[in-house]
Amino acid sequence: MATMGAKTKAVWYCTSCGNESSKWMGRCPACGEWNTMVEKTLDTGVKRARDTASGSVRKPQRLKDIQSLDEPRVSLGNAEVDRILGGGIVPGSLVLIGGEPGIGKSTLSLQIPLGCPDLKTLYVTGEESVKQVKMRADRLGGDASECLIYSETCIENVLEEAEAVQPQLMIVDSVQTMYIGAVDSTPGSVTQIKEVAATLLRFAKESGVAVILIGHITKDGYIAGPKILEHIVDVVLQFEGENRGSYRILRSIKNRFGSTAELAVFEMTGAGLRAVLNPSELLVPMHEQGLSGTAIAAMLDGTRSFLFEVQALVSSAVYGTAQRSATGYDVRRLNMLLAVLEKRAGFHLSAKDVFLNMAGGLRVTDPACDLAVICAVLSSNFDFAIPSDVCFAGEVGLSGEIRPVGQTDRRINEAARLGFSRIFVSAFSSLEQKTPEGIRIIKVADVPALVKNLFK
Ligand code: TYD
Ligand code: MG
């Protein structure tokens, strides 16, 4: 009979990309690097894991006997970041802030201790010198008397200092620059990133220090680490936005201690990131009447609803094939909507160039914006301005039908609050509330009905 004792098995793995193989190879077949395969022994035996703290084995417990505990939370002094985290940071948790280079991750992380002087913070910088951090802090303003800046990239050293300092919060900027001396691989490689994150998670859990880890992701979505990191960490906050534009969206995409339907809008100013508490008021321009090619969409993102402007420019194609381009919007979705307009409503747009832009450098995925997109396109095509007191919330289907969207009531409320007097929604929307004062809800079932109502 087979025994249940520990068995070991040797595998080879690539120190550059983490690829595993059962035999040694000179060149890793996954990443193409030479001489990166090293041997690792895997323990395949079935052994009982022991609780690290008490050394005893864990037993199943009855659900009703387990005491629930309210996670204590520490405020980071930044109302928007606290809200996204679910009411402050949980001690002993590991939070990843991901985003493209230059989007504002370091700025936001430094603003936390600057805005919360009593929070004992250890800011580990692997990218900038302490002088550079100081210059940035001077620019951002604020007072961080309890904040220590530490320029270091070796995690063993970082943890040693952290043990000595006992901070409430540790910020590590960035995971790509950190390395563990015991792991034979270059900083920024997948192996190092995984190990650094796992080590920091263990440190956070054992010491109760909340850790914010910064990670870069590249524009083409190439896994520079954070994708695999998402499985390791407790919370993932993602920074989004066009680098050219000044608006940034911070979105929670994973949260073991709260909802992921949270989002905050920031504006990058000369003095750092400023929370935009009322996004609609910035994104809906108050230009004069009579500008064609714009339509206002009532969008919902996370638990936030806000209105913003969709801009379209339709012109006769100069070259043989028409150009389609979209900023902040999926160009395939734009093509689909144009096809619907052509096929289901008889508008001839195939020989036209169509350019689409979302105001403020926003990136929009909410299907409720479809209606505003087709209205902006038609408005530009006919050079017919849509009155500035009208907004839209509806999805457009392949047969030209206008479909209801989630939480239409909330969108209507936001539109009414901002003083819009008409909102177009799907005829199939089921509204639960009384229509708010001052706004008229116009229900349309399909694209022809919309056109008849709007452009008559
Ligand atoms: P940064 O936080 O360094 O980005 P990341 O850490 O995500 O790579 O932000 C970089 C950009 O922000 C840089 O282009 C300069 C700009 N910025 C401001 O506009 N205002 C400021 O007060 C600061 C600190 C940066
Ligand atoms: Mg940075």
Structural overview:
By secondary structure, the protein is an alpha/beta fold. It has three domains: 8-50; 79-277, P-loop containing nucleotide triphosphate hydrolases (Rossmann fold); 281-454, Ribosomal Protein S5, domain 2, CATH 3.30.230. The chain contains eleven helices and 21 strands. The strands form four sheets. A nine-stranded mixed β-sheet has the order 6-5-7-8-4-9-10-11-12, with helices on both faces. A seven-stranded mixed β-sheet has the order 15-16-14-13-17-20-21. The chain has a three-stranded antiparallel β-sheet with strand order 2-1-3, with no helix packed on it. Strand 11 (263-269) and strand 12 form a beta hairpin. Helix 2 (105-115) crosses helix 3. It is globular, with a radius of gyration of 27 Å. The model is unreliable at 1-5 (pLDDT under 50). Thymidine-5'-diphosphate binds at residues 99, 101-107, 136, 139-140, 268, 270-272.
Q: What is the H level of CATH, i.e. the homologous superfamily of the largest domain?
A: P-loop containing nucleotide triphosphate hydrolases
The gross shape turns out to be: globular
**Strands, count:** 21
Strand content: 25-35%
Q: Please, what is the average pLDDT?
A: 86
List the helices and strands and how they pair.
Elements: E1 8-14, E2 20-21, E3 37-43, H1 79-85, E4 94-99, H2 105-115, E5 121-125, H3 130-140, E6 147-151, H4 155-165, E7 169-173, H5 190-207, E8 210-216, H6 226-232, E9 235-240, E10 247-255, E11 263-269, E12 272-275, H7 279-283, E13 294-301, E14 304-316, E15 324-327, H8 331-345, E16 352-358, H9 370-382, E17 390-393, E18 395-396, E19 402-403, H10 408-417, E20 422-426, E21 440-444, H11 447-454
Parallel strand pairs: 4-8, 4-9, 5-6, 5-7, 7-8, 13-17, 15-16, 17-20, 20-21
Antiparallel strand pairs: 1-2, 1-3, 9-10, 10-11, 11-12, 13-14, 14-16, 18-19
Helix pairs in contact: 2-3, 5-6
The protein binds thymidine-5'-diphosphate and magnesium ion.
